[in-house]
């Protein structure tokens, strides 16, 4: 298995199940909030650890007791929390409003944010790095790291700084029309010459990938019952990172990632649990095999 470093956040999700779809001005009924571990970095790191990888999480938490609770849970899943730093103040918390169709709306409540670029990333040996981080200037750091291993990073607005990485991924719903009109050109502005692929997810429709050599790939999502779309993009990213870390090419990695995303939406939770990861791994065996061990 591979050594994977994840840069992203750790949060407590407080989930409210709504009786109807969210609508402006509506008066809805919800369940009392139920707490669970979440956050983009944690969701991806846990799924990758469940797949058997050696995963280190570079993140920031607060100095409250909640931080200890979340870190203990991450450790139990086998995620290396050594590179997690503590920032004076509260740990990140998000409200997750889950409608009867399984679609989620997220409201950020508090955020533990590292103001400086997490240079410790450079000290961590990795076969592949996954980045889901906003607000920090990561350009110099990622440029150095991308010279050593492939990096998969979530697309973010150019105003938040360059992302010199080989693979960018983003969700259709989060991208503006200008980006979607020419994903490669827009991604080049963000990543520069190191860019190889841009991957865009389309919810229940699956995902597509655009290669700098003009390749265009599509993978359709299996038809699954949707119960909770929280963490779909994070699980997709875990599947893609898993495949690329094992040396699969994009034609194999894309359909695999789509299955990891679909597996997540068909289950409750912010991340794929161990059984779910085992199941997607079993499903994938036979469909594709790694190019190198
Ligand atoms: N309704 C769905 N049915 C099957 N798979 C889904 C569904 N919604 C999401 N997925 C899977 O999760 C991936 C990411 O979902 P998407 O909604 O695009 O991202 P995000 O979680 O960022 O909103 C999709 O590419 C797909 O693999
Ligand atoms: Mg979605």
UniProtKB/TrEMBL annotation:
Residues 1-121, 184-270 form the Carbohydrate kinase PfkB domain. It comes from the Bacteria. Coiled coil: none annotated. One of its GO terms (biological process) is phosphate-containing compound metabolic process. Belongs to the carbohydrate kinase PfkB family. Keywords: Kinase, Transferase. The keyword DNA damage does not apply. This is PfkB family carbohydrate kinase. GO terms for cellular component: cytosol. One of its GO terms (molecular function) is kinase activity.
